[in-house]
Amino acid sequence: MNDTLNTFVRPQDWPSEFGDIDLSIHDLPHHSSSTEWWYLNAHLESESGLKYSVFASFFRKIIGYDEATKVADYAHSITWAIVDVEHKKYYQNSRVDKRAPEIGLKKLRKKEGVKDERVRKAAIEMLEKGSMPYPDRMFEGDVTVAMDKLDLVFDTNSFKKNANGDYILKLHDVEHKLTCELHFNPQKPPIRHGQNGVVSGTSSEDMFYYFIPQHQVTGFIEIEEAEIEKGEDKVYVKAEVKGTGWYDHEFGRHREKSKEEESLDLTKDVSWNWLAAQLDNGYEFTAYHLIDHHTQEVADAQLIMIDPEGNRISTGDFEMESRGELWTSTKTFQSYPTEWVIDAPDFGLHIEAKAPFQEQEFATVISKPAFWEGRIEVEGTFEGREISGPGFVERSGFDEKETLEDFFKAVSRETIKSIKYILPKNPNQEKLNELVTRKEQPHFAQNIDSEQYSKALVEPIRSIIDRGGKSWRSYAALACCDIVGGDSQVAKLWLALPELMHVGSLIVDDVEDKSDVRRGGPACHVMYSEPVAINAGSACYFIGQICVYRTKKLEAEKRVKIYDLYFEALRAAHSGQALDIHGLNYMMDDVVENGGGELLEKRILAIHRLKSAAPASYLARIGGILGGGTDEQIEGLANYYEALGISFQIIDDTLNLRGFKDGLKTKGEDITAGKITYPVGKAMASLDQKDRARLWEIVNMKTDDLTLIKEAVDLLDKVNAIDKCMDEAYEIMDKGWKILDPLIRDSMVKLNLRAFSWYVLDRQY
Fold it and tell me: Which of the listed residues 147, 279, 448, 451 has the most CB atoms within 10 Å of its CB?
């Protein structure tokens, strides 16, 4: 690459190449900066010995210039979190500029930032209302940034510097009743990061980066969950705290492009791990890895240690690796390690770091859709001596789901994991007790051969489930839990219940329909016999009960309500299946002779509503109950999923007809099967008597003659039946959404749910 790409001209308001950093100047905002942020973290302990950690980042970024004055226009945002180690609670807060919807719309319309078109469409729809997807919220008050002193006021949050050199951090979230006020007293001088302070940003910026690794911190934290129950206890905190703190400041500007660079995109597609810790031997250290997305190689890495006197040593020769099982968020379905190992042989340093609890994901569009930043506990050795201390890890940019297809592959993987937990192929005695009846009734499982039990029941079920499916039904329950303000993470096993219910119906359906293939492999009855398949399919409906009584802290009233809903769903689905098997042929002579296609359409929709829409609707109700939604919200979710279920089946009815028209693999199998689908009903309502008779004649033949199938499809097209069905499917879904939309807060989950509805329908054809 041409050397001009690496040209660097130091801005006048940066520190000099060597020498001390003058904090009276460089703590302040920099006129030259296109991007600037101030970051603090602290590890604290109350008088009673309870541990907390806090981090906060204040950002400002140029979004344009005043045409007349050429003065830079900055957008501002803040992210902060309180970590309650004792109660394993993570309280995140994200505030963005009041102009964020406008800024976001400009980017989305330029097709920047979001690759999935359905997600982009849903985001535009939300931003056009002037909303931001929660947990991001717009500033309500003013944002002021003084240029002659360090005095940042971001609405109810501030970061200031006193005349004595202390830093004051104040954080306040009115909505969630969280308050934090901390005083940082520096104990060491500022330390340059990178190459004498210069680092390369991820968007072709030159950045200057320094940090103060040790502060004495005092102050207080107040947490009041007066209205939100977490488990069996409500968390109340109002504590004086003290501990240690860390401070980072980074500022930079976009590099001037040469003529050779004008046509190049210099933005770096990178992920990073960053770790900083304060050790009990008086040392601090920070380490980071930047990973290039394209090559998966380390693009940059550095480890810096600061001794008790404030001297700096650094190396790029170290290993920083994650280990242990990944933790997966049920909100974003991103996976994160929560244990790390760092080895720096030149320093004689070996570090093992582990999070005290895993759920420390920070969801935000600022670093979409989320990053993991949380407290860790460090142990290891340095020059042969044991060391320990608290720290923070930030992990961002890994495991991003660029499309909804990627997202639902992750949902499917987690669904299978939940199934494996509930229904292991080699159940031990404890699991066997649970599967047969329940753990409290072990005598029912006595003298059962676990291996034979697995062959007789578990393997036939798992043979279908382990192939993976769309998993949108499984996502429904968790999404409905989150969308009303609940925490789906505590109900992760509920991914299994919809899948078990659905697969149970598939196994039995395949026996009834004599279908030989399911999910790309042999149907269950082909592999294991019809009696085994019928029993396995039926058992699926009852194994899902384990999800209910495995959910801790589920009140008895809610448990009973969920049981009622679940069995109502099964009754509805089996009623629909009965009507589907019985068929609608009994109506056809009268419909052909006298018309009445409208009634035929209603009968078909009734079957669709029972077979597909009712189970989806009931699962949405269950999710809403788990999340603590209001009756109105739960009803809105149920109505929406009913609409989606009906729309799904209507689109499914058009699928192989469109496939036939478009020359795809599907060749009108429903016509070959003699099935009266919704497009047939729609056509019967519009065709004249002669064409009705001919269409029914061909359908009733159950023919695989492509010429006859084409004739039937042409009759459907004569009255635009297929297109009308598709339009109606989207109209039904949109009507359901319009009812739900005002009932629930605009949020990232809501945005995903809106995009998901298009995904479910669009991908059908």
Answer: 279
